[in-house]
Amino acid sequence: MEQKVSKLADAYLQKKNIPVNSNMRMDIIAYTLNRVKPEYVTSARGVLYSYKDPIEDNKEVLNIISQACEVVTKRRESNASDTIPVIEESGYYITYPSIMGNLFASNNTDRIESAKVYMFSNNALLKGYGVNFPNPAIVAKNVAGKYMFCFMPQKTDSNKKIDVNLDIVVEAENYQKFKSSLTFTVQPEYYNAGDMPLFSVEEVNDISLIENK
């Protein structure tokens, strides 16, 4: 569902020519995901059907995306203090993908309603992209089971592709601590000072937390 909403949101923003930055785009996607019904498919045919017609078969999702655009743009206009980070120095940068995922209880598959999700690189917390994307990400009842990260790009010396290894840690009361690793291949991008970075979206496997005994 995350990938579907991301694609529909991008198509809607382009069609309506709505100017948004990366931060606003992720807010629109998050707003929509918190309000759409999850879809489950059990075959390749089901996947093809769910993407068959981006307009007719997804009117409900597009209506929510439209609402999200209105809410997010109004909120940005009314909150001048909500600063959005930009690139401070021209050069090549490692732009980590925006990471989205879900947390479930292993015993009953219920969504986890309270947790902290940490993302580390070389044993250090990655810096989140502005106040809307903290690290650790906070999972709360109003966004049960969902977490999302955007990270500040990191300056590098060249544009050679690199393998990025990230460690994810999840802590939730009454559940065992979860630890795992993620690996991505990243192509550094050149940004000028003052640019706002563009993020790809990377969906990760669902995480099932085991209850304490």
Mean pLDDT: 83
**Reported CATH architecture of the largest domain:** Sandwich
Shape: globular
Give me the strand/helix succession: HHHHEEEEEEEEEEEE
Alpha-carbon distance between the termini? 33 Å
Short description:
With 213 residues, the protein is of the alpha+beta class. Helices cover 25% and strands 28% of the residues. Strands 3, 4, 5, 8 and 9 form a five-stranded antiparallel sheet that branches. Strands 2, 6, 11 and 12 form a four-stranded mixed sheet that branches. Strands 7-1-10 form a three-stranded antiparallel sheet, with no helix packed on it.
Protein described:
The structure is a single chain. The chain is α+β, with helices and mostly antiparallel strands. The chain has two domains: 74 residues, no CATH class; 119 residues, Immunoglobulin-like (Sandwich), CATH 2.60.40.10. Helices cover 25% and strands 28% of the residues. The chain is built from four helices and twelve strands; from the N terminus they run H-H-H-H-E-E-E-E-E-E-E-E-E-E-E-E. The strands form three sheets. Strands 3, 4, 5, 8 and 9 form a five-stranded antiparallel sheet that branches. Strands 2, 6, 11 and 12 form a four-stranded mixed sheet that branches. Helix 1 packs across helix 2 and helix 1 packs across helix 4. The chain is globular and about 55 Å long. About 7% of the residues have low confidence.
